[in-house]
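Bumping my old thread because nobody answered last time. Still need a sequence for this structure:
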């Protein structure tokens, strides 16, 4: 796959995956509401840095098992329930705009990094994405891995940037706009759709291993 394809695929999946109301998103929303756009932007910058770390670690982990065709095919099948579970989880969670004051740290960028590092789902999420994408193209070279990691950060940053902008312009509508009946349900059904596409791909024999 070309670097552009790897980058944009990673950015798109990161954009979608970052829509859930997590710690970084909540910190950005809260900062935009109470302090304005620039502080929220700094939190966004810090919040996407762990995406680079976790996605690159996922690439290194995936590279270790890439040559084992049986294990890789098994993981391809396991990625189906992985995305199904993610989808069902997103459909069931309760959204809230509250951020735990005890988890605040000094400095906006460091706050974003702190909240981003506290997300335990990033490493398994990006590993699952790599397994999923392997049916369509392989990410093996260091330049492809870097494009994948940078794309993950760019996709998340675009989402957080747009989120901060939206909060500034639509403060009175934020609680309804980011309720579980809109964003979280959209993400949930997207993950379920990805699982169904993966199932069809494997059953049709369009995988490379």
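Sorry it took so long. Here it is:
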């Amino acid at each position: 796959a070309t670097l552009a394809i790897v980058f944009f695929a990673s950015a798109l999946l990161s954009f979608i995956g970052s829509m859930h109301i997590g710690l970084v998103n909540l910190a950005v929303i809260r900062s935009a509401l109470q302090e304005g756009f620039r502080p929220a932007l700094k939190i966004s910058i810090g919040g996407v840095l762990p995406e680079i770390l976790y996605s690159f670690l996922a690439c290194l982990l995936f590279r270790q098992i890439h040559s084992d065709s049986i294990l890789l095919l098994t993981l391809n099948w396991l990625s189906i329930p992985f995305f199904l579970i993610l989808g069902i989880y997103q459909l069931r969670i309760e959204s809230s705009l509250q951020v735990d004051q005890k988890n605040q740290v000094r400095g906006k960028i460091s706050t974003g990094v702190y909240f981003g590092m506290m997300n335990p789902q990033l490493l398994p999420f990006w590993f699952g994405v790599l397994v999923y994408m392997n049916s369509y193209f392989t990410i093996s070279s260091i330049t492809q891995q870097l494009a994948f990691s940078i794309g993950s950060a760019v996709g998340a940053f675009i989402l957080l940037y747009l989120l901060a902008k939206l909060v500034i312009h639509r403060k009175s509508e934020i609680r309804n706009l980011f309720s579980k009946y809109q964003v979280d349900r959209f993400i949930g059904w997207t993950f379920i759709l990805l699982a169904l596409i993966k199932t069809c791909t494997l059953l049709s024999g369009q995988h490379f291993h």
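The chain is about 75% helix and 0% strand. Let me know if any region looks off to you.
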